[in-house]
Amino acid sequence: MSDPTLIAWTLAALLRFAPVAMHEGAPWADATVEDGVARRVGIANAIGSVCSDAKSPRGCASLLVAIAVGESGLARDADVGPCYRVGGYKTRCDSGRAASVWQVQPQGWDADGQPVTVAKLFVDRELAAGIALRVARSSLSRCKSGDPRDRLSGLSGRCIAGPGPWRSRYDLWQRVRAWEPGS
Length: 183
Description:
The protein is mainly α. The mean pLDDT is 95. The two termini are 29 Å apart. 53% of the residues lie in helices and 0% in strands.
């Protein structure tokens, strides 16, 4: 069962680190502020469900918030599909291979024993959050030598040392983890 306090904190963090207005004017913007907030409530609920039994629920939630914000900025198209891939945006969502705010690629099986697909990831945030968490934990475990900021480089499929988007995800994770509402 999800912890309402964890969900409330997660929602506040999503709104703080990816304000609804950040996509204003983009083809993937929410139609209204209310729509953007409602989507964030759904994302917070999925994170709360996946992280509620973690050893550190808030640490888990802050990791998923940082990855979602860093990967997609919580853009509507990345969340509910299909990704906007017109003109200069053809490579969005890993050229159509990834889905959800966490930009995960299909892998494994769902709770019904069926293969995970991009379509399923777009409709099941909890499934997407679970895969994102599994991949992130694997990266943190596999990529622990060297600079700690490279520990999320495994999100790209392999451990990589040096500058890259994984460092900004790691730095954001540390900021989100230390953040308190009202600060």
